[in-house]
Design goal:
Helix content is 59%, strand content 0%. The protein is built from 5 helices and no strands. The protein has helices at 2-7, 28-49, 63-84, 92-96, 104-137. The longest helix is centred in the C-terminal third of the chain and has 34 residues, at 104-137.
């Protein structure tokens, strides 16, 4: 409406007709990278349809792609922390630019630390998270004289 009212540009109403869901069975980080790839593709198409760009392909080093990468890295870390107990192993930015990968022993130590955090979380805190999810989803309904959940 802003473009139509303020700039006098014609607007053609469009609506989303579906949802893209991805899930890598063994890697949360790959799921985030796949979502990022789909997000870039959708953004490219949206910018063309809106008349902002004439070509759908964005330069991987452009500001808009860098902002999108930062958003996906942050979201990926939050989801990985909630689900896996550590930040993401492989970040979207490492798929786009080799300069973002930490080389040598420092990078290996960071990967090892992330693996240790995930192992600890899976071994010692998953039960508590699962119990909380069961309570939230209504699978566990507390009664007065039952064994406590925790």
């Amino acid at each position: 409406r802003f473009l139509s009212r303020e700039l006098g540009l014609p607007i053609f109403p469009m609506e989303q007709r579906g949802v893209l869901r991805t899930n890598c069975i063994d890697c949360l980080d790959r799921t985030n990278v796949a979502q990022f790839s789909a997000g870039v593709e959708a953004l490219e198409q949206q910018l063309v349809v809106m008349g902002i760009r004439s070509s759908p392909k964005l330069d991987p080093s452009s500001t808009i792609i860098r902002v999108l990468i930062d958003m996906y890295v942050e979201i990926g870390d939050h989801i990985a922390l909630q689900y896996g107990g550590s930040e993401a192993h492989k970040k979207v930015s490492s798929q786009r630019s080799e300069s973002n990968i930490i080389p040598g022993p420092i990078g290996k130590h960071k990967e090892l630390l992330t693996s240790i955090r995930r192992y600890y979380s899976n071994a010692f805190t998953d039960r508590l998270k699962q119990d909380a999810m069961n309570l939230l989803l209504g699978y566990y309904i507390p009664y007065r004289h039952t064994i406590p959940l925790w």
